[in-house]
Amino acid sequence: MNDPFPFPVKSTCAYCGVGCGIIASKDEEQNIQIEGDPVHPANLGRLCSKGAALADTLDLEGRLLRPEINHQPVDWDSALDKVALGFKEVIETHGPDAVAFYVSGQLLTEDYYVANKLMKGFIGAANIDTNSRLCMSSSVAGHKRAFGSDTIPGCYEDLELADLVVLTGSNAAWCHPVLYQRLVAAKEARPHMTIVVIDPRRTASSDIADIHFAIKPGTDAVLFNGLLTYLNHRDKINRTFAEEFCEGLDKALAAAERSAPTAGAVAKACGLSLTAITEFYEHFEACEKSVTLYSQGINQSSSGTDKVNAILNCHLATGRIGRPGMGPFSLTGQPNAMGGREVGGLANLLAAHLEIDNPDHRDLVARFWHAPQLADKPGLAAVELFEAVETGKVKAIWIMGTNPAVSLPDNSRVRQALEKCDLVVVSDCERNTDTAAFADVLLPALAWGEKDGTVTNSERRISRQRAFLPAPGDAKPDWWIISEIARRLGHDAAFNYATSADIFREHAALSGFENNGSRDFDISGLAELKQIAYDGMLPLQWPVTKNRPQGTTRLFADGRFFRPGGKAALVPVNPQAPVHAPDAKFLLILNTGRVRDHWHTMTRTGKSGRLSAHRIEPFAEIHPTDAERFEINDGNLARLETNWGEMIARVHITTDQQSGSIFVPMHWNKQFASHGLVDALVNPVTDPISQQPELKHTPVRITPFKASWHAFVLTRKRLDINAEAAIATYWAAARGKGFWRYELAGEHDVASKTELMHSLFSAHTFDANWLEFEDTARGSYRGAQLVNDRLEICMFVGSSPELPARDWLQALFSEPTISELNRASLLAGVPPLGQKDAGATVCACFGVGMNTLIDAITNDGLTSADEIGAALSAGTNCGSCLPELKNLLPNAAAREKPRNAA
Ligand code: SF4
User: Fold this and answer.
1) How far is the CA of 136 from the centre of ligand 1 (A)?
2) 11, 12, 20, 880: which to mutate for ligand 1, most atoms within 8 A of CB?
3) Helices 263-270/220-233 angle, 10° precision
4) Fewer C-beta neighbours within 10 Å, C or N terminus of the chain?
């Protein structure tokens, strides 16, 4: 049979906002291979570890393949009728504000457009919000205040052309790796380029920094106000630009002067050295080509919008915007957060960057859509939306492609809200998410690789996402599911789409409708694309009009903005402290973020053994002085508690972490860890302008988790760990190559470790093939089972966390049979003489472990990352591990570190 897809197929990566192009092809065994697209302008062939492992996530294990009602399979008509009837009844009884959609930056623009149209145009409420609220709504609000539009002025190339790149509140090396690698390459090519990293933590992104400011958490606005004051005192304000093309300069300068009158005052407020601050300000003064790249560290704050505007003020005051090598640059987290912004996926926006508060805009959209009852006021933003679900104000909610039971702050309350809600509909490609567990109706959506549409990346570049896999089971495109509900609600004509191209054309036409240059978002040049042209569409940056059919690289160089009167605004910024400060009970600050190889709530990356190898369980990074103070030991477990919740995490003591703060990654869900939900601890306070939650600043306390036993289990088959290990207080699971790994610990004393493991895994057969050994004096137990001379399962238990290293044992699961030599060493947990333990994975692309690297560096005298790459391939694919490789080199300690200005 002919393959229905014209391999190789060009598409776009499923993960971050860099928006890398990929090429999907099939090898001789018909397996899908994913490579970077060498001509996609975002990545020019590069992929990071996540992108390179996309093929690992394509199988159907765990997929939702049939519609379900009350977790029982039904046909599509039954499920759609149930949803439509449920929404209809709530709307008729309680009004349109009693229903809501919570959507996702994982949706394609076409899906997003239809969801927004249905809620705002035809249901008549604006209760549609997106998980992008959690990552970049402060940037949207800041852009709109300054520019009158949500516009990214520049492009990725500006980073490479700049003489100064300021990376603030962004660990791009891990969160936007390909863009970071472009920056690394640019600095290598132009060594005079200065890179300043501003982050309370020393992260992998600090690796290329000339100066790293370990800033006191929450003081970014003071730092940038101080820069504005400095530029003013040095008479370096570009008055021609700031007065001719902007408003509010004097008020912004006055506010900056009040809060940051001198570099010395800034140094004190930010906990930094005067010398380093002065050096940074001098660099900014000297380098006209300056780019300020920022991300969640700025946005996820109770004053995130002000922080954004403090940055924008510096660029507007100097006229450094929209020209090659200069400008403020907000990096978006998700692959299509930008597409969501374009179609009005946030509750306070209309489609096509139009304003819900503007009666002319409402009239325009209502006429274009022939909408009977366009929403006339903003809807509920994410945090307040789920509060409204909890109080019963919202009685029916449809969650599309996102996992709020894990990702929202104070998510125990979100879970309670979903439990109480009359009707919870979840459309997703995965069946077993934490959120899906609360669904009354589950609707199977297509996954990446099966979907067809467009996404927009952080530089306004629209790329096609193309299907290269058939729809499995009954799965359908999100836009189809939404349109079917719209039809059942009586809006047949407005949702009569046959293809995603139909939707794209309508979206493009709306962007140009009565626009005439008055709005930034205009892709009317694409409004008449035929199907064949849509299918073949090349990546291009909006605006795309009839006059600019190739798109637009930069905006604002001409000083023309989209506020009334056409001028930009400098916004007076009065820096605010975070809402909740540490107190006698909660002495430290909890900061959350991402790790290198996982994405969001792990529903996809958790399927990949190589992506799960880098960080295998929830962890907390803490400075040595705090660890000593709170009697926390490296490698042990600790309990973290806040006013909102608690979790258990493995401790990692590091001087990269600032004293006074703890960092915990956001990814672990209930499928992968018993107590790993960090967002359950996070306060639900939001920025009053953007409604973005303060995910990086919650007072917390840490105490040792006093386990009486620790264990790990490696097993070929996934365990039903909740059922099997019910008496384990703590567990974490990770997939490996051919095995599952479980880390366990318990608080309850046990008389016999053998009995413990036999009772924990009572479903398992402890038969004659089972080898076991208990050392009662040492309080340890070791057991393993071979089936047909192949390792099936092994388990190690002890009274402390110091159990055998896992890596050699894990490698045995790739062996077709276990040799006599290895069998003899199995219960010792260490390789026989002459064999080496590769150690914990550092390079995920080539599976190179820490011990292998250290051996090669020591024995072969390797002195650079290039030499490591030549010897072991490590670091030669995506480059995400290069900072870690460099830190292993013998000269790492002596290597000039970026000056930490604290
Ligand atoms: Fe995907 Fe990595 Fe590119 Fe982001 S940087 S789009 S995760 S390949």
Assistant:
1) 18
2) 20
3) 170
4) N
* Secondary structure class of 333 (helix, strand, coil): coil
Q: How far is the CA of 456 from the centre of ligand 1 (A)?
A: 13
Residue 326: how many other CB atoms lie within 10 Å: 27
Q: Give the pLDDT confidence score for residue 901 in this predicted structure.
A: 47
Return the structure tokens found at 629: 């103070």
Q: Whose CA is nearest to atom 4 of ligand 1?
A: 16
What pTM does this model have? 0.95
Q: Would you state the pLDDT for residue 883?
A: 82
| Integer Cα distance of 35 and 56 in angstroms | 13
Instruction: Return the closest-CA partner of residue 709 out of 724, 733, 729, 734.
Output: 729
- List all residues whose CB is within 6 A of at least one atom of ligand 1: 13, 15-16, 18-20, 43, 47-48, 50-51, 176-178
Q: Cα(605) to centroid of ligand 1, in Å?
A: 13
pLDDT on residue 3: 73
Question: Which amino acid, one-letter code, is at 892?
Answer: A
Output the pLDDT for position 895.
42
Task: Return the amino acid letter for 98.
Answer: A
Distance 534 CA to ligand 1 centre (A): 23
Q: How many CB atoms lie within 10 A of CB 565?
A: 8
Report the separation in Å between the CA atom of 857 and the middle of ligand 1, taken as the mean of its atom positions: 29
- Return the pLDDT at 880: 79
Q: What is the DSSP-derived secondary structure letter of residue 845?
A: T
Which amino acid is residue 815, in one-letter code? E
Q: 783-805, pLDDT tens digit by residue?
A: 999 989 999 999 999 999 999 99
Q: Which residues of the chain have pLDDT under 70?
A: 1-2, 725-726, 763-765, 891-902
Residue type, 641: E
Looking at the DSSP bridge assignments, the partners of residue 398 are 101, 425
- 3-class DSSP assignment, residue 72: strand
Q: Which residues contact 707 (CB under 8 A, 6 or more apart)?
A: 637, 729, 730, 745, 746, 747, 801
